[in-house]
Write a structure and sequence with these properties.
This protein is an alpha+beta fold. It folds into 2 domains: 135 residues, Fructose-1,6-Bisphosphatase, Chain A, domain 1 (2-Layer Sandwich); 115 residues, D-Maltodextrin-Binding Protein, domain 2 (3-Layer(aba) Sandwich). It is 32% helix and 28% strand. Strand 7 and strand 8 form a beta hairpin. The longest helix is centred in the first third of the chain and has 19 residues. It starts with a helix and ends with a helix.
Length: 261
């Protein structure tokens, strides 16, 4: 299998576990600071890791629950259940994320929506959605004016910048319509044209198991992706802004700069 095919297969394997465990009695595993995993997270990652070790035993892996294993110049980033808080209260908004990086670049990525059964994937140059066996190229579109904002911590740029403060400003609401989301499936919505943009504070975006796959898909789809200062996404505490087009990005940068002066 190609790297993209492996990414898709691994994401689908995790999504199958997430689907099967949804609505069942879940064991919560405390991770501190109010965060937790469930047995569904752990089991999904175990299945994903097993398949990945069969297909790419020479590669390094960083998993949300199991940490880092293996060695080599290529690294797979796995988030078996992005949206655990939603999932635990039986809210079907979550994602299974898989990304492959080498030399600071995304080689392949896949994001599975366990509930719609859609698979969003990218090969580093193009992005697609697979639904009912059909692949369709992703085309970003900002016409909805809907902007997803992540209100989950950490907030390394607070108090200067807070997504909640931005959403409450009259300058923002005069042009955009805020939506609050707590899973990185929202990044794929920017790539598909369902959202105009996605904004989050945070750090280590490019190498985050939470954000890497969605970020890779946005970039491959042709979205404008930067940090909160309008610079290329790095690995510091600089947040993330993903937009469907340059006009939307410029408008949001003008608003965000008011808080980061």
């Amino acid at each position: 299998m190609t790297d993209v095919e492996v990414a898709i297969a691994v994401a689908e394997a995790g999504a199958e576990v997430v689907r099967c465990r949804f609505g069942t009695s879940l064991e919560r595993i405390d991770k501190g600071a109010g965060d937790f995993a469930t047995n569904a997270d752990v089991e999904a990652e175990r299945v994903m890791l097993k398949l990945l070790q069969e297909q790419r035993p020479q590669d390094k892996v960083l998993g949300e629950e199991g940490g880092e294993s293996g060695s080599g110049p290529r690294m797979w980033l796995l988030d078996p259940l992005c949206g655990t808080l939603n999932y635990a209260v039986r809210m079907g908004v979550a994602a299974v994320n898989v990304a492959l990086m080498a030399d600071g670049k995304f080689i392949a990525a896949a994001v599975a929506d366990p509930f719609t059964r859609e698979i969003f994937f990218a090969d580093g140059s193009s992005a697609f959605v697979r639904s009912n066996g059909n692949d369709e190229k992703l085309v970003p579109d900002a016409r909805s004016r809907l902007v997803d904002l992540n209100f989950d911590p950490p907030f390394p740029n607070a108090p200067a910048f807070k997504a909640a403060t931005l959403a409450a400003s009259s300058e923002f609401s005069s042009r955009f319509r805020p939506r609050v989301v707590s899973t990185t499936i929202a990044l794929t919505w920017v790539a598909t044209g369902q959202r105009a943009a996605y904004i989050t504070d945070g750090d280590f975006m490019q190498k985050s198991v939470h954000f890497a796959a969605g970020l890779a898909i946005c970039e491959a789809a042709g979205c404008v992706v930067t940090d909160l200062w309008g610079r290329p996404c790095g690995n510091g505490a600089t947040g993330l802004v993903a937009c469907a087009d340059h006009e939307t990005h410029s408008a949001l940068m003008n608003l965000i700069r008011n808080y980061l002066k």
